[in-house]
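Form 7-S
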Amino acid sequence: MTATEGLLVPPGQGRAVAAPADVGAHVHTRSEELFHVLEGELDVLAFEPRVRTPDNWQHGSRPRATGWCGRPRGTVIVVPQGCPHAFANPTDEPAKTFFQASPPPDHERYFEELLEILGNGGPPDHAAIEELWARYDIEQLTPLRHR
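Output:
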């Protein structure tokens, strides 16, 4: 797709990525993201915390209670560039989400490449993950957790 073309994804034709990982809180300096919860539940936290805690994004210090978004089917969340955010499925049931990153190209491929690194059987290759973060404009704020 070029900058002058549209995108058409017919029903059942989109890419599916199963992500058994909590990607942790992170921020993008050049892109924004859109999440549309299609099935299940999704927690999305999008705010600049008073203090960026180095461990768990679910317990970060928030400037206001409206930092949590998401959960039920049909919810749409837009995360602007520069806004720290995190997302996770809070249940044991599968969740399906339409995900769009702008500007392209191919930010959604980050998950495919990350899962390939994490699926090698041994300990995670931290250098490869850090290279991935740099390539996909990700400043990691809290740890990545692989289930």
